[in-house]
Write a structure and sequence with these properties.
Shape: globular
Distance between the termini: 40 Å
Order of helices and strands: HHHHHHHHH
Largest sheet: none
Number of helices: 9
Helix content: over 70%
Strand content: under 5%
Structural class: mainly alpha
Radius of gyration: 18 Å
Length: 203
C-alpha cells in the first residue's frame, strides 16, 4: 500500500465523514446540551475502533458474505436511528449550562450510534476493501493494511466531529431558536434515513 493509495482513501473518507448523518446529529446535540463533546466524539470513534478490529480479524469478510447477517445489522442500525431521531425531535437540543453531564452515558451512546451506523458498515464492508493491495510485491499483510486504513478513518472522524461539536456550541450556543432548529433537522434526518433503510429491507 503506497502513499497514493493512502491519499486516495483519505480523500474519499473525508468526503464521507463530512456528509452530515447520525454521527453529526449526535455530536451537535451533545454540544448544544452542554454535554462533553470529547466524550461524545470518543464514543463515536470507539465504535469505529470496534469495526476496525473486526475487519482486521477478517470478520468483515464473513459478514459481507452473509446477506442475512448483513441485513440484520443494517436493520438494527436503522431501528436505532429511528428511535434516536424520534427522541431528538421530541426533545430538541438547546444550550443548557446547568444540565448534569454523565460522560459515561454520552460515550456509550456515541459508541452505539457509530457501531450500528449503516454508513460505517458500508465503509468497512464495501469501500475499504477496494484500497487493499494483495499479491506479491512486498506489501504489508492485508490485516495490517486494514488496520492502518481503519485508524486513518478514526482519525478523520475525531478531527471532523470535534470541529463540528465545538463549532455548534460556539455558533449556536447563544441562539436557542437556531440551535433547536438545527437539532430538529438532524433528528429528522436520522429518522428519515432509518425509516428509508427499514422500508428498503422490508420489500
Amino acid at each position: 500500500m503506497d502513499t497514493g493509495t493512502l491519499i486516495s482513501f483519505l480523500a474519499l473518507d473525508l468526503l464521507l465523514v463530512c456528509v452530515p448523518g447520525a454521527d453529526w446529529a449526535y455530536v451537535i446535540s451533545a454540544g448544544l446540551r452542554g454535554r462533553s463533546v470529547g466524550a461524545a466524539v470518543g464514543g463515536l470513534v470507539s465504535g469505529y475502533a470496534l469495526h476496525t478490529a473486526l475487519a482486521t480479524a477478517g470478520l468483515a469478510v464473513l459478514v459481507a458474505g452473509s446477506p442475512a447477517l448483513l441485513t440484520a445489522l443494517t436493520v438494527a442500525g436503522a431501528g436505532y436511528l429511528v428511535w434516536l431521531g424520534w427522541g431528538v425531535l421530541r426533545r430538541p437540543g438547546v444550550p443548557e449550562e446547568g444540565e448534569q453531564v454523565v460522560e459515561g452515558r454520552v460515550f456509550l451512546r456515541g459508541a452505539t450510534i457509530s457501531g450500528l451506523n449503516p454508513k460505517g458498515l458500508l465503509l468497512y464492508l464495501s469501500i475499504l476493501p477496494q484500497f487493499l493491495v494483495t499479491g506479491d510485491g512486498g506489501h504489508l499483510p492485508v490485516a495490517a493494511q486494514t488496520a492502518a486504513l481503519g485508524v486513518l478513518h478514526m482519525a478523520c472522524c475525531a478531527a471532523v466531529y470535534l470541529a463540528v461539536g465545538v463549532l455548534a456550541r460556539a455558533v449556536l450556543g447563544a441562539r436557542p431558536a437556531a440551535a433547536r432548529a438545527v437539532t430538529r433537522t438532524s433528528g429528522a434526518a436520522m429518522l428519515g434515513i432509518g425509516t428509508f433503510l427499514l422500508i428498503q429491507h422490508a420489500f
